Amino acid sequence: MSTVTTIKRGGLTAAIDSMGAQLTSLALDGNEYLWQGDPAFWGKHAPILFPIVGSLRNNTATSAAGTCEMPRHGLARIVEHKLVEVSEDGSSVTYEITDTPESLKAFPFHFKLNMTYALTGDATLTQTFAVTNTGDVDLPFSVGGHPAFNVPAPGAEDETFEDYELAFTEAWTNEAPIITPDGLMTFEGSYKAPDNSDVLPITHHSFDNDAIMFTDTPGSTLTLRGRKSGHGVKIDFEGFKYIGVWSAANDAPFVALEPWTGHSTVDTEDDVFEHKVNTITLAPGETDKRTFEVTLL
């Protein structure tokens, strides 16, 4: 049975469910910023993505260790995680999963994944992925976050979804691939920022083709904010190659900001797991750490 652990620092609180080690609340002075999982729109909050981000073609790939067969975004989000540490001051918590006989049927590699949530500022949550290769062959994988935030944000209830925008530190001039109906990536008909601006207004129709995946971003900071109030969230994702932005296609009142190290299979690539673009490869005994920060505005 899953349990929820709450961490605190001043007026900032976060709650994490051991099922999936998923963040389920992020509140400042009692004001909830994290999407609360209304199943009428999307019944999750902030799943963690491992050992894949996005989808494999037909949910299957081959590998040097055997067949990989996993649902979208992998296995970590759908299993119970062990609580291994709570800091003395109650401001951080760490969870762990390792490979099991069941996981090896879907992903034939040995691993350990530690997820740490730490309140590191008056309004900042730091989330750290630590992946260790506990096997005797190379471990290929991707990791990612998927936190979704209420739009409008607390303190900006007079704003609408269309009053919100995405802001980079400078102009983003690249084209973003599009997610196909079967969950793969394609660069045909790709998304391009209007006027090569550092600020991108959003509407519900911005997500008609699923998530927008920004590549080669200028800097490693993205802000979701109301144009009038300035309220929202800022995410710092250094160490993650991509940032995905998504909302459900049913006028859902949230936006997810998703740091990724990899992505779905590209429609032009093969189905060998180790060949997936930007897959991380860990030698036996090595550990890879990736961190992103969310600051409430």
UniProtKB/TrEMBL annotation:
SUPFAM superfamilies annotated for this entry? Galactose mutarotase-like
Which superkingdom? Bacteria
Return the CDD domains for the record.
Aldose_epim_lacX
Q: Which GO terms describe its biological process?
A: carbohydrate metabolic process
Sample GO molecular function, one term: carbohydrate binding
What is the name of this protein? Answer: Aldose 1-epimerase
Provenance organism: Collinsella aerofaciens
The beginning of the lineage is:
Bacteria, Bacillati, Actinomycetota, Coriobacteriia, Coriobacteriales
